[in-house]
Hints:
The chain has four domains: 14-113, Rossmann fold, CATH 3.40.50.720; 150-216; 248-365, 3-Layer(aba) Sandwich (Cobalt-precorrin-4 Transmethylase, domain 1), CATH 3.40.1010.10; 368-505, 2-Layer Sandwich (Methyltransferase, Cobalt-precorrin-4 Transmethylase, Domain 2), CATH 3.30.950.10. It has 18 helices and 18 strands. The protein has helices at 22-33, 47-54, 83-96, 133-146, 149-168, 172-184, 187-192, 196-216, 221-230, 233-245, 266-272, 286-289, 314-326, 345-354, 367-374, 404-407, 422-431, 461-468, and strands at 14-18, 37-41, 59-61, 75-78, 100-102, 115-119, 122-126, 250-255, 277-280, 297-300, 330-335, 359-362, 388-392, 412-416, 439-444, 452-457, 474-478, 503-505. The strands form four sheets. A six-stranded mixed β-sheet has the order 13-14-17-15-16-18, with helices on both faces. α2 (47-54) links the parallel β2 (37-41) and β3. The radius of gyration is 31 Å and the shape is elongated. The structure holds S-adenosylmethionine. S-adenosylmethionine is lined by residues 258-259, 283, 336-338, 341-343, 366-368, 371, 416-417, 443-448, 472-475.
Amino acid sequence: MTFYPVFLNLRGRRAVVIGGGAVAEQKVRGLLAAGAHVTVVSPETTVGLSTLAAENGIELRRRPYRAGDLAGAWLAIAATDDRTVNASVWAEAERAGVPLNAVDDVEHCSFIAPAIHREGDITVAVSTSGKSPALAARLRRRIANMIGGAEARFCALLGELRPDLAARVPDARTRTALWYRIVDSDAIEFVRRGDMEGARGRIDELIDEVRAQESRLKPRLGTARERALQLPLQRQCRAASSLADSEPGVVYLVGAGPGDPGLITARGLEILRSADVLVYDRLVAPSLVAEAPPGAECVFVGKRPHGGKGDRAQDEINALLVDRARRGLTVVRLKGGDPFVFGRGAEECEALHAAGVPFHVVPGVTSAVAVPAAAGIPVTHRRLASAFAVVTGHECDGVSNLDWESLARVPTLVVLMGLSALPEITARLLAHGADPDTPAAVIASGTLPAQRTVVATLATLADRIAEEGLEPPATVVIGEVVRVRELLSAEAVGLTHPARGLVSQA
Length: 506
Ligand SMILES: C[S@@+](CC[C@H](N)C(=O)[O-])C[C@H]1O[C@@H](n2cnc3c(N)ncnc32)[C@H](O)[C@@H]1O
C-alpha cells in the first residue's frame, strides 16, 4: 500500500486518543506539541497522562471506548493492543470521516505516523508504508546525522530572506534556479562557523551575480516570439530581428566521471544543479541526471550500445546546444569521463565557437585512469611504468594510423572502446615486438557495482575476454602495472560503491 505523505496543521483542532499506555502518552505529547486539543479515552492511564489531565493539558475520559467518542474529532489514534476495540474505532472513524491511525494495526489505519527528525523548522519524515517502523527509525537516525543546528539556522535565514529575494528577483524561474544555487553554495559554511553576516554577504553576491546575468540576457526566444505575435504586423519584423540579435546563454561541457556518481567534480555538480537544459550521454549515471533542477529540460543524446535509429548525429547535438544557448539558457552538456578524452568535446566546442556561443569546459575524471584505478591498477608506477598512452580501439581495426611500434614499447597502454577490436589490438602489439607475457587486464563497468575485471597476458587476453563474455563499457590496460592490482583494493580510491565485481585471474 502506498500512503500519501502530508504535514497536518492541528493547531486548535480536536484529536482523540483511545488508550492510556506508554505509546498513547507518546502520541498525546506529539499531538500537544502540534497544538491539538487532545481527548484521551481509557480506563487506565500512565502517570504522565494522569498528570497532564490534572493540569488540564488534556481531557481524560476514564472509561473504555464507546461509539460516539470520535464526535467532533478531526483526527484519531487508537493506541490499544486490542484489535476488536481498534475495529470498532475504525468503523466509527470511517462512518464519521475521521482519519484514524491504529498503532501496529495497519488494517485499521487511514493514515500512518512516520518516524520523524526535527531540527528547528526542518522536519524529515520517514515511512516504510507500515512495513518496518524499526527500519524507518534507523533511517531517520542516519538522516538526523546529516541535519544539525547549522542546517536549522540556515533554514531560518533563508526563510527570513525569502520576501526580499522575491522582490529582487521577480522572475519565478530565475528565482527557483537561484534558490538551488544558494542552497548548493558554500553559504552554509559561513553559518557553520557562526558567521551569519558572512552567509548573508555570500547570498547577496549570488543574487547580484544572477541579476547581472539576467540583465545581460535579452528576453528568451519563447517570450520574445510570443510578444512578437501580439505586435501589429508592421512591427513584427523589427521584433524578429531583435530576437536574432539577442545575446546567447552559455554552454558548460562537464565531465561526469567514469560511472560512479561520486566521481563528478564539485564544480561540475554545482553547475549541473543550475542547468536550464541538460544534454547527456549514455554512460552518465542516472543519479547525476536527477541532480538537474526540477523543470530543467533533460535531453538524452547517447548512442545506444549497438547503434540504432534513435541515435542522434553529432551535428544534431551541436545544433541542439547552439539552439538552446541562443534562447539565453544555461546548457549543461554532461559527458562521460572527461569531455576531451575521446568524447567529441572538442568538436562541440568548435561548433559553439563558430556559432558565437560562449562555453566553458569543466574537466572530468577520465575512465582511462579511474577505471584501472578502481580495479587496483595504477597507470604509472615509479619502478614499473614511467609513461602511459591512451588510444581508442576504433583506430585499431582495419587500416590504422597509429604508430604500433611505439605503442608496443609504451610501459602502460590503455585502450578505450577496445573490446570488439581486442584480437586485432593484441595481434598488432605482438607483431611489433611486445612481450606475449606482458600482464594485461580488461575492466568492464569500472567504478560501478557491476564492475568485472579479467586479468591475463597480452597473448591470452583476447581469448579470455571472449570466454568471459565481458560487455562494454570496458577499458583495456596492458603493462607490468597490472601486477600491482593484487596490492591495491578498490576502496583505496574512495568509491561511493566499493567495486564488488567478479574478478578472475588467468
Ligand atoms: C566514448 S569513450 C569516452 C571516454 C570518456 N570521455 C572518458 O574520459 O572516460 C567511452 C569509452 O570509455 C571507456 N569507459 C567509459 N566508462 C567506463 C567504465 N565505467 N568502465 C570501463 N570503461 C569505461 C570505455 O572504453 C568506453 O567505450
